[in-house]
Amino acid sequence: MAGSVSFFFFFFFSSSLLIFSSTHVESNEEGYISLDISNKGLDFVKEFLVEMAESSLVPLDLPKIEKSKHIPIIGTVSMVLSNITINNIHVISSTVKAGDTGIVISVSGAYANMTMNWEYSYSNWLIPIPIADNGKASIQVEDMDVGISFNLTNHQGSLMLSPLDCGCSVKDIFIKLDGGASWLYQGLIDAFEDRISSSVENAISKKLREGIVKLDSLLQSLPKEIPIRNIAALNVTFVGDPQFRDSSLILSINGLISSKDAYAAPPYHHLEHLLASLEHLLATVSVKDPTSMVTISLHEKVLVSASSVYYDANKMHWIVDKVPEQSLLNTAGWRFIIPQLYRQYPNDDMNLNVSIFSPPYLKIKEHQIDLTAHADVVINVLNSGEVTPVACFSMAVSGSASPWISNNNLGGSIGLDEFSLSLKWSKIGNFHVNLVRVLMSTALRTVILPYINLKLSKGYPLPTFHGYMLQNAEILCSDSWIKICSDVAPVKQSSTS
Ligand SMILES: *[C@@H]1O[C@H](CO)[C@@H](O)[C@H](O)[C@H]1NC(C)=O
Ligand SMILES: *[C@@H]1O[C@H](CO)[C@@H](O)[C@H](O)[C@H]1NC(C)=O
Ligand SMILES: *[C@@H]1O[C@H](CO)[C@@H](O)[C@H](O)[C@H]1NC(C)=O
Ligand SMILES: *[C@@H]1O[C@H](CO)[C@@H](O)[C@H](O)[C@H]1NC(C)=O
Ligand SMILES: *[C@@H]1O[C@H](CO)[C@@H](O)[C@H](O)[C@H]1NC(C)=O
Questions:
Q1: pLDDT for residue 289 is more than 80
Q2: Closest Cα to residue 285, out of 6, 91, 17, 43?
Q3: 3-state secondary structure string, 405-458?
Q4: 139 C-alpha vs ligand 3 centroid, how far in Å?
Q5: What is the DSSP string of 7-53?
C-alpha cells in the first residue's frame, strides 16, 4: 500500500506538473490554469523576440535608389545605388510595456551594417564620351530607434497578435565608398543619405510587421491539446482575452484533462528552431531578480479532471505485495486478529488487491490538499502458486497532502485524518472487524505513512520540457488553487549552478 499511496500522491502532482511539458491568478469563466507573466518574464520574452528579430531581419534587401544631380560645369550626374543589403543589426537596449493599448516593445540605439554597389555616369558638351564608374560601398547606420506595438487577443481559443503600429527612425548614417574614383564621389553620395535612411526605415518597419504576422500564424497553429502519457490530453485552449494587470500579462487556458486513447503526438517540429534560439538566449540571461518570471495557477478542477481520467483509464488497481512491515503480509501476522485465517492457511503469504472504486475526492485548501479515497481491498492468500481471495474490506481513507518544491524536486508529506473499514464479504466466517480496523489504522499511522513520508521527503525531480526546467520554483496552496511561482532555465545551466 505504501507504494500505491505515494504513487497516488506523485501522480497528482506529476500530472499537474506535466503541463510545463508543453508552456495568471484569478480565472475567468472556464480558465482553470492561468499564467501570470511578470515584468521580468515579459522582459525575458522581449529579449527573445529582439534576438529573433536581429537574426531573422537580415539579410534585408532594399530597393535600388537612383538620383540625378546637376553640378555646375560638370553637368548632370546620374547615380544608381543597387544591391543595398542590411547584413546585420545589433540592438543595444530595449524595453517592453504591457497595457490596455497592447504590448509595446521599444528598441533604442540599434545599429546596422550595410553594403551596396554604386555607379555613376555623366556626360556633357565638353566630354562627348559618357564617363562611368562603379564600386562597392559600406554603410553604417547608427542610433536607430524602433518601436513596435501589437494587440494580443483571443481568437477562437488561440492567441492572436495583431500589429498596431510599427516605426523605425535612423539618426545617423555613414557611407564609405570603395573602388573606382570613389574619392571623387564621396561628397556626392551624401545627397543620398536621406533616401537611404528612409529606405532602411521603411524596410525594417515592413519586415517587423511581417514578423508579427508570422508569429501570429505560429501562435494560431499551436495545438489546442497536449497529450499526456498516451492516455489523456490537456486542453490548452485559451479562455478570455489576455489581461494586463500591474504591468504583468495574465493568460488563462481551459486546463482540464480528458481521456484520449492512442494519442498521436501533434507535430511540434515547427517549434524546434524557436526552442533552439530560446536555449541560446536562456544561456545568456542571468537570473538575479528575486521576483519570479511566471506564476502558474492550477484550479483543483485540473487535478480532479486528471484523477478521473486516470480512474477511467483503469489505472487505479494495485496488487500490494510489499509493505514496510512485511509480517503484515503473512497469515502469521494476523494470528491473533483473525485466528481462523491462520488456522486455515498457516504461515502463508498474502497480498492485497486494492481497487479504488470512484475517482478520489480532492479539495485544495490553505497550505494543503485534502484527499479522500474509497477502495475495496481483497485479501488474497498465496498458497503454492494458488491465489485464494479470502475476504474483502471496503475502506475509506481521508488525509491531506502538503506539497513543496525545493531544488527542483517536488516533495511533500501526507497526514491521515480518517480511516474507516467495513467487511464486504468473507470466506472464512465472521471475525472482529474492529480489531482489523485498529490494526490497519495503527499500521497506517506508525509504519506505512512514516515510510511514505520518508520517500516523499526526498522528493521527485520535476519534469523538464525540451531541455527546460523550472528554477527557484515555489508552490503555494490556497482556496481551490495551487500556485507555482518560478523562473525558467535550461537544464544544463541550472545543473551547473
Ligand atoms: C550584392 O551584395 C552581396 C553582399 O551583400 C554580394 O555577395 C553580391 O555579390 C552582390 N551582388 C552584386 C550583383 O554585386
Ligand atoms: C485590443 O483588442 C481588444 C479586444 O479585441 C480591444 O478591446 C482593444 O480595443 C484592442 N486595443 C487596441 C489598442 O486596438
Ligand atoms: C558594424 O557597424 C558597427 C558600428 O556601427 C561597427 O563597430 C562594426 O565593426 C561593424 N561591423 C561590421 C561587420 O562591419
Ligand atoms: C477545451 O476548452 C474550450 C474552452 O474552455 C472548450 O470550449 C472546449 O470544448 C474544450 N475542448 C474539449 C475537447 O473539451
Ligand atoms: C482484484 O479485485 C477486483 C475486484 O475487486 C477483480 O476484478 C480483479 O480481478 C482482482 N485482481 C487480481 C489480480 O486479483
A1: no
A2: 43
A3: EECCEEEEEEEEEEEEEEEEEECCCCCCHHHHHHHHHHHHHHHHHHHHHHHHHH
A4: 9
A5: HHHHHHHHHHHGGGGG---S--TT--EEEEE-HHHHHHHHHHHHHHH
Instruction: Give the 3-state secondary structure of residue 468.
Output: strand
φ, ψ for residue 334, nearest 5 deg? -110, 10
| Cα(394) to centroid(ligand 1), Å | 81
pTM listed for this prediction: 0.76
Q: What is the pLDDT of residue 374?
A: 92
The pLDDT score that the predictor gives to residue 408 is 80
pLDDT of residue 486: 87
> Quick check: 39 pLDDT over 90?
no
Q: How far is the CA of 237 from the centre of ligand 4 (A)?
A: 6
- Is residue 153 in contact with ligand 2, taking CB distance under 6 Å? yes
Report which residue type is found at 225. E
pLDDT-derived band at 341 (thresholds 50, 70, 90) equals: very high
Residue that has been written with the C-alpha cell 547606420 in this structure: 141
Helical H runs in 249-298?
A: 272-284
How much is the pLDDT for 277?
Answer: 54
Q: How far apart are CA 90 and CA 358, in angstroms?
A: 60
Cell of 433: 472487524
Does ligand 1 have an atom closer than 6 angstroms to the CB of 82? no
Q: Which of 229, 84, 105 is nearest to 161 (CA)?
A: 105
Band of pLDDT at residue 197, cut at 50, 70 and 90 = very high
Interval between CA 368 and ligand 4 midpoint (Å): 29
Distance of alpha carbon 463 from alpha carbon 461, whole angstroms: 6
Q: Is 70 exceeded by the pLDDT of residue 465?
A: no
Phi, psi of 119 (to 5 degrees): -150, 150
Ligand lying nearest the CA atom of residue 309: 4
Residue nearest to atom 12 of ligand 3 (CA): 113
Q: Does ligand 2 lie within 6 Å of residue 58's CB atom?
A: no
Tell how strand 317-320 and strand 158-178 pair up: unpaired
Dist. CA 82–CA 117, nearest whole Å: 5
Q: How confident is the model at residue 393 (pLDDT cuts 50, 70, 90)?
A: very high
Taking the centre of ligand 1 as the mean of its atom positions, its distance from the CA of residue 183, in whole angstroms, is: 22
Tens digit of pLDDT for each residue in 52-86? 888 888 899 999 998 887 777 777 888 899 999 99
Q: What is the pLDDT of residue 183?
A: 65
Check if 83 has its Cβ closer than 6 Å to any atom of ligand 1: yes
Q: Ligand 2: distance of its center to the CA of 240 in Å?
A: 13
Q: Whose CA is nearest to atom 13 of ligand 2?
A: 101
Q: Which helix (H) or strand (E) holds 3?
A: helix 2-17
Atom of ligand 1 minimally distant from the CA of 136: 14
Supply the residue whose CA is at minimum distance from atom 4 of ligand 2. Answer: 153
pLDDT for position 293: 83
* Consecutive H or E run containing 370: strand 368-383
